[in-house]
Specification:
heterodimer, A: 300 residues, elongated, B: 626 residues, alpha/beta, six-stranded mixed sheet, 32% helix, globular
């Protein structure tokens, strides 16, 4: 029955009524979806904790407040960790690093990846092949392994973590961008810009980029969740920034042995990272649907 | 057309008072539509995009697109009430009782399946009866009916190994495979060349006659149905405004809208220039209380604006919904608009092509083309898709770079790529693309798109904005269009914007590449009118590339006919159309659908052989012809 259905679909697409429609942005359309709203709420709460939390921390990050692994230590809300430090304070202080690193590395990965994808799609031919095959090679390395190698050889510095996480994001972003841009470079407005002799930068940045912004936005959110997870994993494995600095990922690892007696030192950061990832994922999904919905109404 | 000799005692398809609404508000997109079609009869349902014609076509299959609901009415095929069937039976009825031929066979056929498999699948899905050998036999049979070879080798091909015409024949074969009693054809020849189109139309007519199939042929092009249908129903804003036998409809159209539709069709002979119609049809929810056509009608009175006219019977089987049927429409004076005939006088050339050959990755598709466009002259370059005409125009525009020979702009030789040409040259020669849906950046307001040539030329932002506003008004839009986005505009408006962008830098040469082929006839007429007017006022030199031979009469001083990468003949437009020298031109003229001419019926001879010749894409030529 596929043929008739396909035919109906084709007929239905061509028979669409062409009425003036208010120009709605992807963001506005995405905000109309519940998943986006819930996602945004989650993200807002956790970003709020990470950014404003330090202002409300009752103790310092490395301050000794009671016996280690004591869930009921006096003067604490969630007890103490393995060094007798306040869990609640360390939780409030420990979100900033992971969030900042994740956002910065995602932005760098996105910028580089998008640039490579656009150039590959626009030039095609040999340059496209060289760029994309290089991306495939990078793709082939397991991200975590690559990150561990980089951190062990270059040291546990923030910029190393940022760059290596960005580096692992580049091939995926490049591939998505190239895929989306391939359909755009064929379109006549790009030809019109070429006939006018617009610069390549203008064509890539002003003509093509805005038309792949939708998929790119979705990808950005996805990459952010991956970055959070990867930086978290590095921290958990003990390759995060700074020993005994308050950090959600390291907290999970440090307090793991006392999960049954003093669970909050592990559970709080786990919930935080999980909800942040889910929140960002929901926003990505909402944006994705909005992009599909917005672009479906357009004749090719 | 009506004289088929079939005695119409029965009705194959009956539509009664069909009403289809959209959304929660329940605005109607189709209302009060009633039609009947007898077995073997072809009815043309004509209207512009958005008129609801496709919606009616789909309703015959019991289908409403997402968001739309069939609110009331009846669709009866034989004695089966389509709209009352449960979904499971409806699925069986589709394909078996009624089948559908979509506009673009390229997208309706599964590219990953052999055509033989797809045809057999249709039979299996509808319990055609019998076993594999019966199905195989039926496939061979139906292939013969659509004049395609039913050989195993041919059936093993994939859709991309067929030409557009062959693909559409396979689409027809699928539709006819289960011997349905009704078939809905949704502009099935829109993407095809005139010759291929003529052959496909011929096949459709014969199939319907021979097998007693009732056909609903949905189209925006009156000229196409003129050669095919027995009766015509004209739809406007969701309602049928005129309905009658084809001959009557073309000879004595009563509704002003029908008259406009006919006036918009380029005539093959005679002195008639095409006339467009300003404005656009009201969209659902914005339709006036009275006659929906009143805002665009020159004969409209208070009465028209107050209430929608009832159905009036003019003659046997000819009905119209209009208070002022037969009212004259405002037609342009031909002498003032059509190109003057002083075409053979040599003028100094604005654009000269010398021995231009172009190729794609080494395969030459354009051979030694010599052509010149004089100052203030419009030269049409006519050919079917694959003739190389678009490649020529893209080479002139600097968009295609793989060419040899010389192209002169005035006295300067142009570089191959636009990027290698100085700014001043790039601005002197401008290009209008075929498809206004893809030539404007959807993420950028109209004003910015139109201003680009000026910005590239170094004009200050304020001056550019004023120039853009002026230009938008010149192309009959208003200055406030500058802030809108392309998806808020209709196809015709977009093409006006694209023309504004091309003309804003005051170029000497304008290259128009099939600028009307994506548009409805009325809009096409309006765009051609606009171009002709601007060409005269601005003294533009124009290279007008098209596959539509009759269209050139309204705009071109001289016409060059192109096939297989070579120019076959060049001459004054009038001469080329009335006394074509080359065989190819004669054939092209013969295949062009026409109206207002006596030999409506048998213009098409069987000339299937060259259509069947396999068009394997040995050369994947990225021609942009739709």
């Amino acid at each position: 029955m596929s043929v008739i259905e396909a035919g109906l679909q084709a007929g239905l697409d061509s028979g669409r009524i062409d009425q003036p429609r208010r120009h709605r942005g992807v963001l506005v359309a995405a905000l109309g979806l519940w998943r986006t709203r819930i996602g945004l709420l989650l993200v807002a709460v956790l970003v709020g904790i990470a950014v404003l939390g330090p202002l409300f921390a009752p103790y310092g990050g490395t301050e000794f407040v009671g016996p280690p692994f004591n869930a009921d230590a006096p003067g604490t809300v969630f007890g103490t960790d393995k060094l007798g430090q306040d869990v609640w304070s360390r939780f409030l202080l420990g979100g900033r690093t992971i969030l900042l690193l994740a956002v910065v590395s995602t932005l760098i990965g996105l910028a580089v990846g998008a640039a490579i994808g656009l150039v590959a799609a626009y030039n095609r031919g040999r340059l496209d092949n060289v760029l994309m095959r290089t991306m495939d090679v990078v793709f082939a390395f397991p991200n975590l392994l690559l990150a561990l190698v980089a951190v062990t050889t270059l040291g546990r510095r923030s910029w190393v973590i940022v760059l290596i996480v960005a580096f692992t994001a580049v091939p995926r972003v490049a591939r998505i961008t190239r895929g989306a841009a391939l359909g755009v470079v064929e379109r006549d407005f790009v030809g019109a810009a070429e006939a006018l002799g617009e610069s390549r930068t203008h064509i890539l940045g002003r003509e093509i980029l805005p038309n792949v912004a939708g998929p790119l936005l979705v990808e950005a959110n996805l990459r952010l969740t991956y970055s959070i997870a990867l930086i978290g994993a590095l921290g958990f494995l003990g390759f995060g920034v700074g020993l005994n600095q308050p950090d959600w990922a390291q907290m999970i690892n440090e307090n793991r042995p006392a999960l049954s007696t003093a669970p909050w030192g592990t559970l709080l950061p786990i919930f935080a990272i999980a909800l942040l990832t889910v929140g960002v994922g929901l926003v990505a999904d909402g944006l994705g649907r909005a992009v599909a919905g917005v672009d479906r109404g357009r004749p090719a | 057309m009506t004289m088929t000799g079939v005695v119409r005692t029965s009705t194959a398809l009956a539509i009664e008072d069909l009403r289809i609404v959209v959304g929660r508000s329940g605005e109607d997109i189709v209302d009060e539509v009633s039609l009947t079609i007898a077995p073997g009869e072809v009815l043309g349902l004509v209207g512009e995009s958005g008129s609801g014609k496709t919606t009616v076509g789909l309703a015959v299959l019991g289908h409403a697109r997402k968001g739309a609901t069939i609110a009331s009415g009846r669709v009866q095929i034989g004695d089966v009430p389509m709209l009352e069937l449960p979904l499971s039976q409806l699925r069986l009825a589709r394909g078996r009782l009624v089948s559908y031929v979509p506009q673009d066979p390229g997208t309706a056929l599964n590219p990953a399946m052999r055509i033989g498999t797809q045809l057999r699948e249709v039979l299996e899905a509808h319990d055609f009866g019998g076993y594999e050998d019966v199905h195989r036999k039926r496939v061979t049979e139906v292939m013969a009916e659509v004049l395609l070879p039913g050989t195993p080798q041919f059936l093993r091909r994939y859709p991309h190994q067929l030409s557009g015409g062959q693909q559409q024949r396979v689409g027809l074969a699928m539709a006819f495979a289960c011997r349905p009693s009704v078939i809905v054809l949704d502009e099935p020849t829109t993407g095809l060349d005139v010759s291929t189109q003529a052959h496909v139309l011929q096949t459709i007519r014969q199939l319907c006659r021979n097998h007693g199939v009732a056909a609903l042929y949905v189209t925006h092009d009156l000229a196409v149905v003129a050669t095919l249908v027995d009766r015509v129903a004209v739809m406007y804003a969701g309602r049928i405004v005129e309905h009658g036998p084809a001959t009557t409809m073309f000879d004595e159209p009563a509704h002003p809208y029908t008259r406009h539709l006919i006036a918009a069709v380029p005539a093959m002979s005679g002195e008639r220039a095409i006339t467009g119609l300003a404005g656009r049809a009201p969209s659902p929810g914005h339709r006036p209380i009275g006659c929906a056509f009143a805002p665009r009608c020159s004969a409209a009175t208070e009465e028209c604006r107050a209430s929608f006219p009832r159905i009036d019977v003019l003659a046997d089987g000819h009905t119209v919904r209009c208070y002022h049927p037969m009212a004259a429409i405002q037609q342009r004076d031909h002498t003032a608009t059509a190109p003057t005939a002083a075409a053979d006088v040599p003028r100094d050339a604005a654009l000269t092509l010398r021995r231009v050959s172009a190729s794609y990755t080494g395969d030459t598709v354009v051979h030694d083309v010599d052509l010149h466009v004089g100052r203030g002259e419009c030269v049409a370059l006519v050919g079917e898709s694959g003739s190389g005409k678009t490649t020529v125009s893209r080479s002139v525009g600097g968009l295609h770079q793989e060419w040899t020979g010389e192209i002169h702009l005035g006295t300067t030789v142009l570089a191959r790529a636009a990027r290698d040409r100085p700014v001043e040259q790039r601005l002197r020669i401008q290009y209008v693309f075929q498809n206004p849906y893809s030539s404007l950046n959807p993420r950028r307001p109209i004003g910015e798109s139109v201003a680009r040539p000026l910005v590239v030329g170094g004009m200050a932002a304020g001056d550019a904005r004023r120039a853009v506003a002026d230009m938008l008004e010149r192309v009959s839009l208003t200055a406030d269009y500058a802030d809108r986005y392309p998806d808020q505009l209709s196809g015709g408006e977009r093409q006006r914007v694209a023309i504004a962008r091309a003309l804003v830098s005051k170029p000497e040469v304008l290259v128009c590449d099939e600028v009307t082929s994506a548009l409805d006839v009325l809009v096409q007429a309006a765009i051609v009118e606009l171009l002709a007017e601007l060409q005269r006022e601005l003294g533009l030199s124009m290279l007008f590339v098209t596959h539509n031979l009759p269209l050139v009469r309204s705009i071109a001083d001289r016409t060059a006919v192109m096939a297989d990468g070579r120019i076959l003949e060049v001459g004054a437009t009038e001469r080329v159309l009335s006394e074509p020298e080359h065989e190819y031109t004669k054939r092209l003229l013969a295949d062009t659908p026409r109206i207002n001419e006596t030999q409506l019926v048998e213009v098409v001879e069987e000339r299937i052989d060259d259509d069947v010749a396999l068009h394997l894409p040995a050369v994947a030529v990225p021609e942009l012809d739709v």
